[in-house]
Amino acid sequence: MEEVLEVPHVATNGDRPAEHAPRAAVTGASLVGEDLCLAYDEREIVTGLSVAIPTGKITVIVGPNACGKSTLLRALARLLRPRRGAVLLDGRSIHEMPTKEVAKQLGILPQTPVAPEGITVADLVGRGRAPHQGWIRQWTAADRAAVDGALEATGTLELADRLVDELSGGQRQRVWIAMTLAQGTGLMLLDEPTTYLDLAHQVEVLDLLVDLNQRDGRTVVLVLHDLNLACRYAHHLIAMRAGAIVAQGPPGEIVTPELVTGVFGLPCQVIRDPVSGTPMVVPIGRHVNVADEG
Amino acid sequence: MTATAVPARAPGEAAQHVRRRTLARTTTVTIVLTAAVFVTFCVSISVGDFPIPLRDVVPAIVGAGTDDAEFIVRTLRLPRALTAVLVGAAFGVSGAIFQSLARNPLASPDIIGIDAGACAAAVFCIVVLHTSAGITALGALGGALLAALAIYLLAWKRGMSPYRLVLVGIGIAAMLTSLTEYLLTRAQIFEAQRAMVWLTGSLNGRGWEHVRAVGIPALVLAPVVVALVRPLRLLQLGDDTAKGLGVRVETCRLALVLVAVALAAMSTAAAGPVVFVAFVSAPIARCLLHTPLAVGSAALVGALLVLLSDLVARRLFAPTELPVGIVTGGVGAPYLLWLLVRANRVGRGG
Fold this sequence. Notes:
The complex is a heterodimer of chains A (294) and B (350). Chain A is α/β, with parallel strands linked by helices and 294 residues long. Chain A is built from 10 helices and 12 strands. In chain A, the strands form 3 sheets. Chain A has a 6-stranded mixed sheet, with helices on both faces. A 4-stranded antiparallel sheet of chain A has the order 2-1-4-5, with helices on one face. Chain A has a two-stranded antiparallel sheet with strand order 11-12. Chain B has 350 residues and is an all-alpha fold. Chain B is built from 13 helices and no strands.
């Protein structure tokens, strides 16, 4: 497999008229990683990787465990400082910018956010407004509108006074997305937002992200485990293996049995998803029909 | 989805409603706690071997009472009560910061070895160096800072794991406590007694120099605490989330740790380790407020706890006075047991 088959054309998204709060502050700042070397302590995970996130689109990063997809996402969100190379947000190095300024343009939902004991949904979502507040500027009408807009968009408005501890997994995930949404950024990065959710809630969360993308032209980047859902919900798919990008592009163009076998080391067939028309991966393990084998 | 009915509200009002309710609750709790502190403060000044009628307390404080009352109040009881308020408030804030940073109710300075550091250093000063009270207090301050540094360095491993912080802290506390015991076995009987009184935590004979020793740093640190509460609220959501929301995580955490250590250390230096005040104040405040962070109320609860405990300690076996630490220990120990039992049952290890 070739590394980095193509770097897509970075589309620019014109300003769209505002309809609902919360509006993205800057619709689609561009996000580019240049020659990234990413490491934890001595362990180098990603070496010399370059990537451009298409603006105003949904990008999904897939790959086997420990391929560096979460590491890449953390670097793009300036949570991890690259050993070499740079992440550019609208052409400026993200690690050179004041972190609060970045927080006004880029929101990140980490894999395991912590909800402190006894916090209400409204309080948690309200904390997403932190980048817009300062010493003088306290809680304003804009904050109020952004929080309620985020609650409404995620269908959590009626949970506003509930305790986060008491919610179901799906509700809790939507509340966390609401918090990231209240931040009002044009770029949203989410690290495995569907982990621990059942299928119905996975689809619900992904549908929500598509709504946010279509409504406001937000750029959404997420790491996903489920290839078939990734194919359905991505405009742009990035397949990673061993710290490198193996292929990227629209799922319909790049997902082939060869790619999946190359990336995951698993034989498979790729057929047309009868519902969405996107590629659907059917894995072939050592056993394929246990009931018949018996 | 839940079956909860959607309340009919104007747009932009749902979260605002919750906010307003929290604000109303905070205001009420703050007013009630402040009133309780004030009343206990006055009662504490009023009672004693020479009782001063409650209505004469405030005039005596401001210098409009009789000469006798004024002497007793302004020289003896007022500084003691003020020290109690300051020490309690400082312990309360210190505990609230530590527990929120570590996201663990066990991570208060009296459990994780900050106070133990102060004690070991103070006993070393008393027993080995034969120092005066002032130098002993400074030594306690240094001991607390050293203990904090040791815990921070040992618990640091690519970031700060709350669980490791508590475990390392408890280990350090155990080591320092055995060091203290060893020093006591080596001491002369008179010095050992002096050290023991200090170790129990006592407000006996606290004068204006103690008020100044705690009050001035407290005044300096108060605005710093106010400034750091906002990042602390975000740090409660986890390091990555806080960073994503624009918090300079390492800088803010270091500042918070330093402030919390300084508050615990200066209180311990002035009154000894008044155990469990830092440990229980913030949880009580959070229960009253129904919010995950309640620094201001934790200060008020701490002040109230120390004032009440000192009142009980003074009057329970009057004219014999108990050290205040015995009373706070009696209140705090059951809570610690309850917390450990509950943590084991929930299976979170605290």
